[in-house]
Amino acid sequence: MQLIQQNPDIHAYLASSEVIDHWHPLVQETADALWVATGDAYSYAEAAFEFVRDTIPHSADSGDPRVSWRASDVLGTRNGICYAKSHALVALLRAQGIPAGLCYQLLGDDDGSNAVIHGLVALRLPGGERWARVDPRGNKPGVDARFSLDVERLAFPVRPELGEVDHPEVYAAPHPATLKVLRESADRSELWRNLPTSL
């Protein structure tokens, strides 16, 4: 799939914000520690992906009722759903000068019902010609997402025959529909009831 850069200015994909707060000391400390252990952009990006995928449990897997949405809070609480984990990975990538944005899929149950928006990340290594998607959601039985810039290894390949959709846009900021539900939900059960069904 050809990814579409929603904002033509590549600098938008390096910017800090209230959500992608890569200026925050915890994000900076985490990024610096990962960089020291790697030392080049590709190795760092892979390490940051694996850090978010493996050390921050998806709250649906862990049962954690807290809702985090700011990148620094995701790192601090070690908790979040796909949108929140994507915010954390984007912040870590941007903290080391790697353009990164947010992507979305519409995914449903095995019969196509209960479709909701799923969040993931696109990155573009310095000197790279194209965006590549990765999914830091977190692996579990039946889910095996990997860091791969050539062939996508996402948590959930879409099934068009069930009405699932890969949205091609790479957003510089979280989509308003996903951010709204994160910010307005008191706990994960409320969040789960209100997940967006479209962008």
TrEMBL record:
Name of the protein this chain belongs to:
Transglutaminase family protein
Database matches in InterPro entries: Papain-like_cys_pep_sf, Transglutaminase-like
Q: Which organism is it from?
A: Streptomyces racemochromogenes
Which residue ranges traverse the bilayer?
none
Source domain of life is Bacteria
Record domain Transglutaminase-like: where: 37-136
